[in-house]
Amino acid sequence: MKIAIVHDYLNQYGGAERVLECFLDLFPNAPVYTMLTDLSKMPARFAQVDIRNSYIHSIPFSKKHYKKMLSLFPTAVEQFDLREYDVILSSSSAFAKGVITNPNQIHICYCYTPMRYVWDLYHQYIQEDVTNPIFRTLLPFVLHKIRMWDLITAQRVDHFIADSKSISRRIAKYYGRESDVIYPPVSYDNFKQAENTEEFFLIVSRMIPYKRIDIAIEAFNKLKKPLVIIGDGYDRKRLESLAGDTITFMGRQPDEVIVEYYSKCKGFILAGEEDFGITPLEAQSSGRPVIAFGKGGALETVVENETGVFFYESTADSIIEAVRKFESIAFDSSVIRKHAHGFNETRFKEEILKYIQMAIHQKEHSNE
Questions:
Q1: Which of 18, 100, 231, 290 could pair with 280 as two cysteines, CB 3.0-4.6 Å apart?
Q2: What is the pTM of this model?
């Protein structure tokens, strides 16, 4: 059966793009339809992928200012002509699930989350993330229309796969749809356990407000303990202005550097609520324990007092208390790595392939 993959954007490399790579391993000849692409920010393998961009990709400055073009995205994704395919696999946290299919096709959506800035993060996005006063005034009207479109297009999907139980609950609340859970993959074999660790704690993250790196910085300023932050984003200048002498910003780093820092850190910090959160599993694949906010996907990937500890209030003092508890526990790196292995790529690919075969089987029987 002919399969097409639809992915939101190819302009940054994160957990969703790692999932997409697994899809491409399973279906190497499948084209990838997407809103826009910036290959300079993607791994080299994507230069060999059959990428088919929407018209937004051709708009001048769209790579930099695509967020200002939100009102165009619904039309853009609906213009993808997918009639020649039997199975459409959408990889979506925003617009990809909105493609139009016909009754003879199967549309399976691997959903990272319902669109957060029109649902659970709507008020935070309007009040904190948007700084331009004109844009802030107009945006609620745009997002209202996108929210209605998002709800309608959820009915176009034949099968939802949620990337965590937390997201499955959101899909039920916002879309009124059932979903099956298949956890995303961690590239377990790419990580290593160091013979000796060091005293610094580590954050690997995009620098955007909902990641709550600010409260981690506040906590480590008070603790006067070393914290290394790898990543970049539009919130970086503000975060750097908050940091004391024990905080180190490294910006974007290649994979080999990140792997090294994972293996040598004393512990990994996840300060904000994540839909799933692949970075804590990358740390655990390196045998390193995690201090995580006790909400969302982390509750499904971290075992308290065995592979890490939780803090339950989004404050610096709560993180400080968790760090002190963390330092009182003798973690076993081999136990941590064994836990992370349960989320490996082979497991993910097998579960996805089995799910697609199940969906095809159901479709064939419904047509009899």
A1: 290
A2: 0.87
